[in-house]
Amino acid sequence: MIIRLLAACFLMIFPVTALAATLEAPDAVGVGQPFQVRLTSEAPLDGASLEWMGRGTDLAVFHTRDGYEAVAVVGVGLDDPTGDAVLVVKTVGAEGVQRLERAVSVEPRDFPVQKLTVAPKYVTPSKEALERHRKEKGRILEVLHARTRAQYLKRPFVRPVSGIVTSAFGLRRVFNGEPRNPHKGVDLRGKEGTPVKAFAAGKVALTGNFYFAGNCVYLDHGQGVVSVYVHLSSIDVRRGDVVRAGQVVGRVGATGRVTAAHLHFGLYVLDRAVDPLPLLD
Known about the structure:
Elements: H1 2-13, E1 22-24, E2 28-30, E3 34-41, E4 45-52, E5 55-59, E6 62-64, E7 67-75, E8 83-93, E9 96-107, E10 113-116, H2 127-145, E11 165-167, E12 172-175, E13 178-179, E14 186-189, E15 195-197, E16 202-210, E17 214-222, E18 225-235, E19 242-243, E20 248-252, E21 262-269, E22 272-274
């Protein structure tokens, strides 16, 4: 009885507080590169959210053997400013709302320039084609703007095809002397009909045949992460399907505005196109 009373008095004088959550992220990251964020807490978390360079998403929190954890992938877009940036994560638990900050230095990168001479039709699409593209772009943006809390991402990630990179992310192309937007994915060599594998588990958010992209598949991996598979000869999944990492989603092709078979593989995080290859290393 005396021991219980002493223990109660001790708790009144020295109240037990939940251990603070910790936030892990790299000190520096280059323009166009993705990076992983890890939140851990020994105390229970009811929820968490992330903010990075003006955009954010709710995080999926999981109960682990050592406590609670949330993992996210974010990145720096090609047009984002360099210099110091702040990653902010807010947690909700028994102690209320906790704000964690992590300084990340965004470093500049140089990207190659490729000058090509091509048929005029590849430089100046018709008015009808541009109108079609405008409508298709609206459907794509709906997918990229989505923020589903479900978290399908789990390492190791899968290279969609084994072929070498033939056009790098961020490549600045000049067609017939006219500059074009930088390359927002990587082109991987592959023969017509080669199976294309899902980079990670996810839900099929969009499929279809588009003017520039040809046959394509968009996978929503949750928390604002979307992978894209473009110029396919065939599509092997349907919208709403949940696929596992490494599952075949289509076949390499040459559909859309291309001159030879290959896979254009893209990755978007919080609406930003980033280089997917660093996540495959």
